[in-house]
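Input (structure):
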């Protein structure tokens, strides 16, 4: 399939794996790129820029296809050495960066000078337009159903995508809730040029996370996610568990007086324990409503092939068959 996104990034299929903390290691990014999509190594999961240099080199060893690095710009209190991470990205020969969180504006000159294509992930038309204005090459538009930081506007993809199509000139991908070929076709129909997936890619053979995490995703339904940190205006969609219920109780009892420190025990430093050790109840971890559509743990190649076969069948058979015959 050929879209503005496959052309922009030089990939076979318009299917992207978004950055995921303690999931987006070289193994997953390479598997997605080898399957014809676009994989992203998650920059900040690597504790130092030197670690990121090594992870990029590992990924180059696993694939000859294009892959990128995700750089998440965290809220003010956390200050990773971004210029050094960007240097590791440039020197590692990376040509595509997915930015997320705060605006990448101050780092755009450094990225553009190095000839890097930037796709910025955001949850509103307003932020997507800003990304376009500051020179991003594409945007990943995250609907309210997405796993992770879903923003504060709560606009589901059915509205957000056609709104993005009305306003944007740069290509964009539909992110949040995506898992199937039919959804890819729906996203294309609404004006997107491809899809970005997070949660679906965790439940794959190659995702280098504990089996408990994959099983929890398969077992969960679309009713099993919760929104936490809403009173802190840092809303995150996570899988429901005992730690998440504790956070929600505290949010209810403290009301407007809540501070980030009140939820720290359940949100800070939990990813290695969840993803590597498999303790899925220890804290809050991002997960999308798309769990309702995830029933298996295929290889990445099988998953991507299935999505593309279904999409092509839906376009050429089902939709064409609906056209009224003269
Ligand atoms: C476990 C997990 C960790 C994530 N970590 C990050 C991250 O570090 N940076 C980022 O930009 N997005 C992160 N995301 C968001 C994904 O890249 C993607 O935008 C999102 O999962 C799309 O929604 P979906 O899960 O419904 O497919 C994460 C998502 C999950 C599920």
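Output (sequence):
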């Amino acid at each position: 399939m050929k879209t503005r996104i496959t052309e922009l990034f030089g990939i076979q299929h318009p299917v992207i794996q978004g950055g995921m903390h303690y999931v987006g290691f070289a193994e997953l990014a390479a598997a997605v790129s080898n399957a014809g999509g676009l994989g992203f190594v998650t920059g900040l999961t690597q504790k130092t820029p030197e670690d990121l240099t090594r992870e990029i080199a590992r990924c180059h060893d696993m694939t000859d296809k294009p892959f990128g690095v995700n750089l998440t710009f965290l809220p003010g209190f956390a200050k990773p050495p971004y210029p050094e991470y960007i240097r590791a990205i440039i020197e590692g020969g990376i040509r595509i960066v997915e930015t997320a969180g705060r605006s990448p504006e101050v780092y755009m000159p450094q990225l553009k000078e190095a000839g890097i294509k930037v796709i910025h992930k955001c949850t509103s038309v307003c932020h997507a337009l800003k990304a376009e204005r500051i020179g991003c090459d594409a945007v990943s538009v995250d609907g309210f159903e997405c796993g992770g930081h879903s923003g504060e506007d709560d606009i589901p993809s059915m509205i957000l995508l056609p709104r993005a199509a009305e306003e944007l000139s740069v290509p964009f991908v539909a992110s949040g809730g995506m898992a199937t070929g039919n959804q890819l076709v729906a996203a294309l129909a609404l004006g997107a040029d491809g899809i970005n997936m997070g949660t679906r890619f965790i439940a794959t053979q190659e995702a280098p996370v504990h089996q408990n995490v994959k099983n929890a995703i398969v077992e969960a339904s679309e009713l099993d996610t919760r929104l936490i940190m809403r009173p802190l205006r840092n809303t995150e969609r996570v899988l429901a568990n005992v730690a998440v219920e504790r956070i929600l109780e505290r949010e209810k009892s403290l009301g407007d007086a809540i501070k980030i420190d009140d939820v720290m025990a359940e949100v800070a430093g939990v990813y290695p324990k969840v993803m590597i050790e498999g303790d899925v109840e220890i804290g809050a971890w991002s997960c999308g409503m798309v769990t309702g559509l995830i029933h298996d743990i295929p290889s990445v190649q099988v998953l991507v092939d299935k999505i593309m076969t279904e999409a092509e069948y839906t376009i050429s058979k089902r939709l064409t068959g609906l056209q009224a015959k003269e």
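Notes: The pocket of flavin mononucleotide is lined by residues 18-21, 23, 42, 70, 72, 100, 121, 142, 146-148, 175-178, 196-200, 285-288, 290 (CB under 6 Å). The CA atoms of residues 62 and 283 lie 32 Å apart.
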